[in-house]
Design goal:
With 96 residues, this protein is an all-alpha fold. The protein is built from 6 helices and no strands. The longest helix has 19 residues, at 26-44. The termini are far apart.
Length: 96
């Protein structure tokens, strides 16, 4: 519960240090840590913070949100998931 409070505080106060207080240990805390940093990246329109986000799916979402917020479609190239990359860039994904 404490770490969820850190994440909420970090997002509301744009405080990256509060995100760093969340230990990236275990799946749940790693995800919470990643979401927290992603929220700050989106608030700041700072794609460089997205590179620090784990797990990969949350990092991809971070790049997508920052690309949309900044209208910088070059960030779409950093997205690994084909579906999200397609959503970001507007390209069609063909499934075989």
């Amino acid at each position: 519960m404490r770490y969820q409070c850190y994440a909420i505080f970090a997002e509301r106060k744009d405080d990256l240090e509060a995100c760093e207080a969340i230990p990236a240990e275990g799946e749940d805390l790693t995800t919470l840590h990643g979401v927290c940093i992603s929220d700050i990246a989106v608030n700041r329109s700072d794609s460089e913070l997205c590179a620090r986000v784990e797990p990969e799916g949350i990092r991809d979402g971070c790049y997508l949100k920052v690309a949309e917020a900044t209208d910088n479609r070059e960030l779409c190239d950093k997205i690994v998931d084909r579906g999200l990359k397609s959503t970001c860039s507007g390209d069609t994904v063909w499934v075989n």
